[in-house]
Amino acid sequence: MDTASPETSIVSLILQASVLVQMVMALLLLASLFSWYVIFRKRSQLANARRLSRTFEDRFWSGMELGELFRQASRERVREGLASVFVAGFGEYVRLRQQPNPNPEECIQAANRAMRAAQLRETERLEEHLPSLATIGSVTPYVGLFGTVWGIMHSFQGLAKVQQATLSMVAPGISEALIATAMGLFAAIPAVVAYNRYAAQIGVLVTQMDGFRDEFSNILQRNLSPAGEGSRKLAGADAP
């Protein structure tokens, strides 16, 4: 009676596999490890991005003068998300307002361009390594299947050398080949789930930045009126 544990049997099957199948398994293992590294890193990054965005949004709508908020945000060591978009837009607005005979409309347009550029940088930072998860999720099942097909072919080629083939002769080869498919699915499933989840979270953050950019542009636009009635104070706009 075979008393070997399943773990020992799997390890022995991997060790007995052909060199090519072992290379496929090693590649899938590396892909899985990298996928989990990205998953945990991206989880922490997005949680931090959501926290910073909520904190800055609360400060922005607290009624603080925008000039003071700009000075505080500019001095912060970590400036991401909405804070980065705000500093880019307000900084460009202030810079142009300090020019001789500034055109208010051009100042607002320049601020919008600066905010869009900052938002694109923030989006690119948030999406870093996300395509890697998509690639791992879509490619590794096929890599594992390739290892399985090769292992089965190798097993049947061995059967051609014997006159009487039995199930016990081909079963180990097929078993070791199927491990490659299992490893491919083990690498792919978490990557696909994480990609979909993180892509949705990034979409929410990008939408939040879009809304903030529009609202801030409206605030700047309202300050073009003669009295600036109903607008936020831009104290410090002339001397950041």
Automatic annotation (TrEMBL):
**Example of a GO biological process term:** bacteriocin transport
Q: Which GO terms describe its cellular component?
A: plasma membrane
Superkingdom is Bacteria
- MotA/TolQ/ExbB proton channel domain sequence ranges: 103-210
Mind telling me which NCBIfam families this protein's record contains?
tolQ
Give the multimer and partner information. The Tol-Pal system is composed of five core proteins: the inner membrane proteins TolA, TolQ and TolR, the periplasmic protein TolB and the outer membrane protein Pal. They form a network linking the inner and outer membranes and the peptidoglycan layer.
Q: What task does this protein carry out?
A: Part of the Tol-Pal system, which plays a role in outer membrane invagination during cell division and is important for maintaining outer membrane integrity.
Q: What family is this protein classified in? A: Belongs to the ExbB/TolQ family.
Designated name of the protein = Tol-Pal system protein TolQ
Organism, per UniProt? Candidatus Macondimonas diazotrophica
Gene (name only): tolQ
